[in-house]
Amino acid sequence: MSTPTTPSVVLYISMSLDGYITTKDDDLGWLEMVNGTGEDYGYFEMKSRMGSYIVGRKTYDVVRNLCNGEFPAANDFDCYIITRQSIPNKENITFFNGDVADLIKELKAKSDKDIYCDGGGEVVRLLMDQNLIDEYIISIIPTILGDGKRLFLGEIGGINIEAISTTKYNSGLIQVHYKRNLKPKTN
Length: 187
Description:
Elements: E1 9-16, E2 20-22, H1 43-49, E3 50-56, H2 57-66, E4 78-82, E5 93-96, H3 100-110, E6 114-117, H4 121-129, E7 135-141, E8 149-150, E9 161-168, E10 174-180
Parallel strand pairs: 1-6, 1-7, 3-4, 3-6, 4-5
Antiparallel strand pairs: 2-8, 7-10, 9-10
């Protein structure tokens, strides 16, 4: 008899080689350079593991603007938008302004499926600050933006991670997969 596993919080996101997830004006057009290759970069397999989706309110707004007011993730997941504001919930979308650690605990308790985090940088920092991200799957797009909004904003303590895999695709995209290592580092 196998022991049930605890769901993981998985950061699955793309960034430029120099660490940006968008330009200063929230342009994501540079991501198109790796689209159209017939490759999904493991997205559909990863997506099948997920039961809920966490994203920051600013990223939510950017996606809605790009998708004519729609939020496509709400078609596939129970979505939790991390915000400082009190905003009425919508179908499959909860605007959450409480303690994110409590939210993660609640989501892990109610489902055996993983939790998909899609950024942005402020939400990633908030989750990292409380050591809540279990896996990092980061697709590095072969471009240098030079400026924009960073994935890792800093100002957190160190986190032990271990490399699981690296995959290079024909488009030039390199995907790295890390898991949080609960063992203390040894010298």
